[in-house]
Amino acid sequence: MNVVRNAVTICMFVFLLTPSYSFAETPTKQVAIIIDDLGNNMTGTKEILALPIPITVAIMPFLPTSKSDAEAAHRLGHDVIIHLPMEPLHGKRSWLGPGSITTDLSSKEIRYRVEQAIKDVPHAIGVNNHMGSKVTADKRVMKIVLEVCREHGLIFIDSKTSPKNVVSKLAVELGVPYLENQLFFDDVYTTQHIIGQTKKLIHKLEHSNHIVAIGHVGPPGEKTAAILRDFIPVIKENAEFVKASSLVPERQFIQ
Ligand SMILES: [Zn+2]
Q1: For 204-241, how does the pLDDT look when each residue is reduced to its tens digit (9 = 90+)?
Q2: Is 15 part of any domain?
Q3: How many separate domains does the chain show?
Q4: What is the CATH number of the domain that holds 215?
Q5: Which residue of 3, 103, 111, 118 sits 20 to 30 Å from the alpha carbon of 53, by its own alpha carbon?
Q6: Which range of residues forms the domain containing residue 130?
Q7: Ligand 1 geometric centre to CA of 85 (Å)
Q8: Which residues form the signal peptide (predicted)?
């Protein structure tokens, strides 16, 4: 009897020492926050860069603080991406900024503009679109943008300003690492809306392991930074904050 009891005790002891594989294999949920529209000394830039989490900052090229914002973000350990201005279906061209990609450009000029934007923003690991509801639905233009991304080892993150876009299919065909935005924090500038969207992100985490969400510097910048800061501990209960590059499988990501 003693032998049997000892054997049972040993088995229990071994069981207790064995890692619980079902727990160990549960993937950690991940949130990648992208902040758009840096590069023009926009309101909230300082507060956003000082957030105590890794983020991804999207910097517009050819603007007064494009380079210094990229350098500061890189120094603080954030990911830098190029926030490439792209023609929208509605809205003024003047909102686009310099070096914008429009559907009336020749293929050669589109390639040239993307190349120049890459040169203008140091440390970039990817590209996302500023506006762009017209361009992201245009196969000719997006094919060139994605080809240049591939040549430079850059990922493309679709801000999803148009439901009709062709980007995901083209990115798969061309082998460009691709992510897409799932939620805008501050498409409406009120505190109430930004808090509501942040709670929506927490709710989405119940059904999703990876979330990409976009906020902005500029008019909502300070509010967005303050609300994100307040919600960091709450989101950390459910997920870890990562840079966009962490959501791309390493084998696809050439740097
Ligand atoms: Zn933008």
Answers
A1: 999 999 999 999 999 999 999 999 999 999 999 989 99
A2: no
A3: 1
A4: 3.20.20.370
A5: 118
A6: 27-249
A7: 7
A8: 1-24
pLDDT at res. 77: 97
- Ligand 1 centre to CA of 161 (Å) is 10
Mean of the pLDDT values across residues 89-95? 83
What's the 13 CA to ligand 1 centre distance in angstroms? 57
In the reported structure, the alpha carbon of residue 126 is separated from the centroid of ligand 1 by a whole-number distance in angstroms of 15
pLDDT in tens, 93-128: 778 989 999 999 999 999 999 999 999 999 999 999
pLDDT one-digit tens code per residue, 174-192: 999 999 999 999 999 999 9
Cα of 58 from ligand 1 centre, angstroms: 8
- At 255 the pLDDT is 42
CA distance 93 to 57: 23
Give the Å distance between the CA of 37 and the centre of ligand 1: 5
Q: Is residue 201 part of a domain?
A: yes
Of the candidates 245, 252, 251, which has an alpha carbon nearest to the alpha carbon of residue 30? 245
Q: Residue 149 falls within a domain, yes or no? A: yes
